[in-house]
Amino acid sequence: xxxxxxxxxxxxxxxxxxxxxxxxxxxxxxxNPAHAGHRHVSLMALRRxxxxxxxxxxxxxxxxxxVAGMAPKEQRLASAQAVARHPRIxxxxxxxxxxxxxxxxxxxxxxxxxxRTRFVWLMGADNLQQIPQWDxxxxxxxxxxxxxxxxSPYSYKSLAGKAAQRFARCRVAAGRSGRVAELTPPAWVFxxxxxHPASATAIRRxxxxxxxxx
Length: 214
Prior knowledge:
Layout: E1 22-29, H1 36-48, E2 53-58, H2 73-84, E3 89-92, H3 94-98, H4 103-113, E4 117-124, H5 125-130, H6 137-143, E5 145-149, H7 155-159, H8 162-166, E6 171-172, E7 188-191, H9 200-209
Parallel strand pairs: 1-2, 1-4, 2-3, 4-5, 5-7, 6-7
Helix pairs in contact: 4-6
């Protein structure tokens, strides 16, 4: 685990009631810890989806993940800030500031706060497979464009899963991914990409064996 002192949680400029028109990818997660795979997906999203920025939303506590083994949010924030290292990737504890716990509520709050921003929810194929377990998951599809990134070995199962099948008619061809931010939801795209080997689980396991805090 990176021994980096966390800076105060960053918020995009003029965060509340911001009227800038832009395209923003939202990557939510525990970042326990953040790793190069998160950055790899974010850079791919900036390019393939024609985004202006990517925001990393470090969640205070994922409702679907156990508290045990979860590093303090300040430590996870610090690891994300250390890994991001890009002027168009912004790291924030915005969910904590918005007072939201579930993704559906976070996206609704973001739409109110940033009325001219076109958001794209970013997630791996493993989350496409798991999203039917999320609170009001179908509403998420209907409220924001979604980009799903290939993540072996989950990809084939996820594309045959409940979410992909229910919204099959709303899937956008990968060749049109640069327009997905401007489409009216539900609209989602599946992007094949070179797999990055980094894994938060493996990093935690290695850190624990090495005697490092994780």
